[in-house]
UniProtKB/TrEMBL annotation, chain B:
GO terms for cellular component: plasma membrane. It is found in: Cell inner membrane. It holds the Pfam family BPD_transp_2. It comes from Vreelandella halophila. CDD domains: TM_PBP1_transp_TpRbsC_like. Its main location: membrane. This is ABC transporter permease. The chain crosses the membrane at residues 61-79, 91-107, 113-138, 145-163, 194-214, 243-261, 267-287, 294-310, 322-342.
Amino acid sequence: MVSFMGATASRRLELVGITKAYPGCIANDRVEMTVKPGEIHALVGENGAGKSTLMKIIYGVVKPDAGQLIWNDRETLIEGPAHARRLGMGMVFQHFSLFQTLTVTENIALYLPRQEYGSLRRLRDRILSVGEAYGLDINPDRHVHTLSVGEQQRVEIVRCLLQEIQLLILDEPTAVLTPGEVTHLVKVLKQLASEGCSILFISHKLEEVRTLCDRATILRGGRVTGSCTPAETTSEQISRMMLGDDLHIEKSMGVGAPGDDSLSLEGVSVSPGGAFAIALHSIDLTLRAGEITGIAGVAGNGQDELVDLINGELAPDAGKLLLDGRDMTAEGVLARRRAGLATVHADRLGRGSIGAMSLTENRLLTAYVTDSDAHGFLHWRPLTERTRELIQNYQVKASGPDDTAASLSGGNLQKFIIGREIAQAPKVLVCFYPTWGVDVGSANRIHVELARLRDEGTAILILTEDLDELYLLCDRVGAICGGQLSPLKPGHEVSMETLGQWMAGTFSAPQTQGVQNAH
Amino acid sequence: MRIEARPTPSPTMRYLSPLLALGLTLITGAAIFSALGKAPLASLHAFFIEPVSTVYGLSELFVKVTPLLLCATGLTLCFRAKVWNIGAEGQFVFGALIAGAVSLQLADHQGFWVLPVVIASGVLAGMAWAGIAALLLTRFRAHEILTTIMLNYIAIQLLLWSVHGPLKSPSGYNFPESELFSPQTLLPTLWGQYRVTIAIFIALLMLAVVWTVLNRTLLGYQTRVMGENRQAARFAGFNGNRLIWVLLLFSGGMAGMAGVSEVNGPVGQLTTNLALGYGYTAIIIVFMGRMHPLGVLLASLLLGLTYLGGENAQMTLGLPKSITGVFQGLLLFFLLACDFLISHRIVLTPMRGHRPSNTSTREVTSS
């Protein structure tokens, strides 16, 4: 699978003085970096530090204004992604580039030259065998729109592994994976590295960088502010290089003071919408005012359906949904928003925002409920002003309300979207992957804001795969598996081990623990 | 030379593309004229300049622009939401047919209420015709492109049946035509001997309304969001079906009004050849005008001119009237081709081999 063409090279990739300026900002400023063959190299930095631009330059998506790129000891001008691929590079983007209406096999076929995969049937077999070899379990016949975020990422990774690969670039690969999956991915990456493939790895999880990566390059404001051997460096030291000295990370989020029931699901069941969608089986869930409830789970276990159901896009077959004691089972999205429900969807650019529209217009996407006058007219000046405030209050890095959503980095867009929902003072807030792909500083800021909202009496539901986040924020935790919800218990009563069992679908955990103790 | 995708769509090219398409159309048009043995420049002059070189010619341009602009105004809103109503032609014809039938019924009635009733009947008929497509789309998910095109043919057949049968003039020597409408059912002309009617003001007024709706109202915002990203619209709780109904009924009503403007304007009776393709031409206008009200106004002037030019070319150059269709087709063809340049660009690359430093790989000395 792995080509050894470049095995003799002393440097797989070297960047010399790479500079790229966009109107109004310098994304990369004389960046220098060296990646050796078989090295796992981390690229660390805040949102907007220029990591994504640098990745895109390496992969030929963006042309640098100045600087050299040296590939296997030869100066190389990458003409585009297809050229980069021929040279032996593969890239997994943070926002996946998959066609929703095609199957996994068809998507991968589109990415490969015809002569390389032969027939769809042969390609399907290869996908299965690569998936098996690396433990990346995917069904090649499923349509991508039925896949969860985590599963789509697996498709992207398998797609890269099908080619002869010398450098695999991954933009925040572990952000959507469960602890088990992360362990698995680490194994895959280490295996690849041992075969001589270099890995360039963007991550915000410094602990992970420290255990996995051989080298790390740290970017801040487009410049390299340091490089280190992560195993010999503390997370604090890396953080400082990333963020400067003045960053304060809030470590404690306090606890909630549960009040009345705000949102209740009573025996809600949903039959699967698509051929491969997950059914929800008699879900009972109560969110209380002033409390954060967290649900862990492997991607694709019914989280999408649960969020759609609560948001009002998916009608249940059985059961009831009560919002502030009112039966709203039959009501749609708008009525629920009016009643004080707000949702932050995991699919930031697909549903939470519209890439081509301005931030003012994107704020309106959910704020429209309150922000048009009685006759349905919009007054742009106050709307723009409110957007400007939002940008300031949540420290969104944007030049102003007229920026398009697509021009923002993932973390900045997420700050914007969460800020937008919080600003509407919701009674119930559902956050689906609140900090996926968000850097340490921004994630901390989002956590602090969520804790503040909780203290103001909002009932918050968090669906996440980041267990640190779950334990940090949530008063009660549980897990979802195969469309079934585990019991919800106070965080301090649920061990990481128990939670892991719940995520795997074994819900009788307390008894199990008792039995284990008896032995 | 090679073609590569732009990192972001070019806004400049979005506005340049229609002009480029126009230029290419003129060049190709000149080539066609000279291939037909006509002097190319003189022919272009006869096609594009001569028809509007007199006041009467200009007034005739607005006679053509009136139905085109009315149809295009409705479609602008529809297309912004990516609701592809291709049925303005059928809605136009059905509006004209019903307004014509009502006009014939009211031939002997006097009163200020007669004309409003005629107009309302045409508008409602257009809305009803579009409403069929809306019902099929929202209830059965039948794609609007297919249903609206099929409804076009049905509307035209209904018109033909009507003027050959129940609405045929008893005093018309068995020609498939209705009786001429009474004056009180006709739209008033603006002045003198010219045929332009007050419908042009209705068109301009509605264009301003559409501009306001798109830019200043929640409905327009929701329309634009739906066009950009339906999943986001659904997530945000916009009522997609309601929007589809509103947009299709609006554009149907506008096309129906266009039918009234034609049949109760310059034509003055129901005939078999009412369907001159205004509804289809309006589609070109909306794309040419970048779905922007001002652009749509300019494009409707240009496309209106192709009708006049075709008629003039027929008279002075002895060319078939289908030359209008040729120019409209060229314009759309080149527009679609030039629109490719919004998302892609042509890059001039130096010839390979001349400058080795620019080839893709080169040995570097190890530092």
